[in-house]
Amino acid sequence: MRYSITLLSLLITGLLYAQPDTLVPADGPYLSYEEDGTLLAQWAWPEERRRGSAVFSADTVALPTFRTFRPEMIQADRVFQRESKISFKDVKKLAVVSDIHGQYDVFRKLLTTHGVIDEHQRWAFGEGHFVIVGDIFDRGPQVTEILWLVHNLQLEAEQAGGRVHFLLGNHETMIMDGDVRYINERYLVTGGLLRTPYQKFFDAGTYLGRWLRSRPLAVEINGIAFVHGGISTDLIRVVRTLADINNLYHDNVIDNEYGTEISNTHRIKLLEGRSGPLWYRGYFMDKGFEAKDMARILKKLRIHRMIVGHTSFTAIQPFFDGKLIAVDSSIKFGSMGEILLIEDGDFIRGGLLGERTPLFLTGMR
Predict the structure, then answer these.
(1) For 60-87, what is each residue's pLDDT tens digit?
(2) Which of 123, 158, 186, 360 has a Cα at 20 to 30 A from 286?
(3) Which domains does the chain have, with CATH numbers?
(4) Sheet holding 50-55, edge to edge
């Protein structure tokens, strides 16, 4: 059994540690499935060295205050299926960010200022699509707040006819693989208080872990590919479509802990390595990469533009005559950041103070 703890002791723990708290938001909750299918909720106040837990239900009174968690949004019986639809056309407006790295305050300000969410953190973007090009995890101290907010927005967007696309970045897959080198010290304290290694909060036996494992690596919207690191010339030789990349990675890495068949070894090494979609930086670091290489990649994928994160700049920037847009605007530092807005063919950099700056990319319409 995942937790050798009785229902009675859980309730006692909740009473001992989940004292009424309306002022200081807790870290969490971390929801884990018990053998009988019920959810165990755990949380902590790492700065105060306090913790709590309770059997979860939508009306659990023992839950403390959280910044973004909303019990009514939890679909405990939902089976999170891998995203099968990854191509979308005729989307009138898009918003794009990447590499948030635990900086909830900057993230929220960008979304609020540019109309993606309202002042109550509810979806306000109508039928628009919002893309997160990977890397919510690591570095910053507010990862959990962002995860629950994005989870909620995904459900609300679907109800409004819009979409939230949370793509996996290298830091999501690192956590799922047990690599916690870059987590904020705050989460080491949370793990210690809850007597659980941090990565266990996101394994396949948890609510957030199952949700993460349903996320794609890449999507295509209006002929634009979105992927965290990028598609290299090496990778494009062995895969044909974005769907191939998603399926290969999920089948052989995320959903298969025992490895792959020998015939797939080369492709899987490419997918996981520095030339793979989660780690690639060759567009910016490889002096031998030229516009003709970019054109060949786009032609092979049958797209006309690519948007990537992973490589940090001080602002959203176009490359190769606008065929590539880098949207990692260094949100990870907690004091800066931009959102890319795409409205009726116009590409706009959105700033924290509400400023809107056209990219003036060639051939944008």
Answers:
(1) 667 899 999 999 999 988 888 888 899 9
(2) 360
(3) 7-66 (no CATH), 87-358 (3.60.21.10)
(4) 27-33, 39-45, 50-55
